[in-house]
Write a structure and sequence with these properties.
By secondary structure, this protein is of the alpha/beta class. Helix content is about 35%, strand content about 25%. It folds into 2 domains: about 180 residues, P-loop containing nucleotide triphosphate hydrolases (Rossmann fold), CATH 3.40.50; about 80 residues, no CATH class. It has a 6-stranded mixed beta sheet with strand order 6-7-8-3-9-10, sandwiched between helices. Strands 2-1-4-5 form a 4-stranded antiparallel beta sheet, covered by helices on one side. It comes from Roseateles oligotrophus.
């Protein structure tokens, strides 16, 4: 297999501090993400991992520091504009707690990820006539390819609420892929899965990184998964960075061992 080529820095997190009232969620966090890598963020519960992801995709505005994507910074934007701009620049996200439309089919859920790419206005789309109909057919073809890629063809017309949790996670990934992301943020994609479902999701993540060319930022508690698929790992504990490096370097970090991995590892 050809050696994986990691590119230049695409996403930079600089001195990020975030607090809610008097509670500090993140304190002076800095790291970068390189194009085409899988970058993991790990740490115990309450370490600030999801808060960090919320800062990256624009949900939270940190009190200090800046986040830049391809050299562009977003700290002067309001939350709604920041979210939209990040999405338009190619940042997509899955969620730890699924935010799918349970009564809608798999196909329709993934279609919602195409909204930013729809050029016709809502009236045209509602009428489904002429150019709007042609556009919808084109978008549907792209969604069908994602459904094939994720091996969920048999469930394409099934309401998402009827699917197993593992398959719902796959639909959530599909909706994010429908946005055609350059940077894909995955918030605990393996949570609640059995061993077989985790193996499938690992395979899809590696294929997304390789075949789709997505840069991936991943939060995950399963250390076996993290160490197997990540190129670099940043470690948080109580909102502070205590480690950063390759999986091998992180394994040898005494602070990480005592805070997260445990001496038995």
């Amino acid at each position: 297999m050809a050696e994986k080529k990691i590119g230049e820095v695409i996403l930079e997190v600089k001195n990020i501090s975030l607090a809610f009232g008097g509670v500090k969620a993140l304190t002076d966090i800095s790291f970068d993400v390189r194009e085409h890598e899988i970058r993991a963020i790990i740490g115990p519960n309450g370490a600030g991992k999801s808060s960090m992801l919320n800062c990256i995709n624009g949900v939270y505005q940190p009190q200090q520091g800046a986040i830049s994507l391809r050299g562009r910074s977003f700290e002067r934007m309001n939350s709604r504009l920041r979210l939209r701009t990040m999405a338009e620049m190619g940042v997509a996200r899955t969620f730890q707690n699924l935010a799918l439309f349970k009564g809608m089919s798999v196909l329709d859920n993934i279609m919602t990820g195409r909204n930013l790419h729809m050029k016709r206005n809502l009236l045209w789309q509602a009428l489904r006539w002429g150019p709007a109909e042609r556009e919808e057919n084109e978008q549907r073809e792209k969604v069908e390819r994602i459904i094939d890629f994720l091996e969920i063809q048999a469930f394409r017309k099934t309401p998402v609420g009827r699917l197993s949790y593992g398959l719902q996670k796959r639909v959530d990934l599909g909706r994010a892929l429908a946005m055609e992301p350059q940077v894909l943020l995955l918030d605990e994609p393996m949570a609640g899965m059995n061993v077989e479902e985790k193996q499938d999701m690992c395979r899809f993540i590696l294929d997304v990184n390789d075949e789709f060319g997505c840069t991936i930022v991943l939060i995950e508690h399963d250390m076996g998964v993290v160490m197997d698929i990540s190129d670099r790992v940043v470690v948080l504990d109580y909102g502070k960075k205590i480690g950063d490096g390759t999986p091998a370097e992180v394994r040898r970090n005494d602070d990480v061992i005592s805070a997260y991995l445990g001496t038995s590892h």
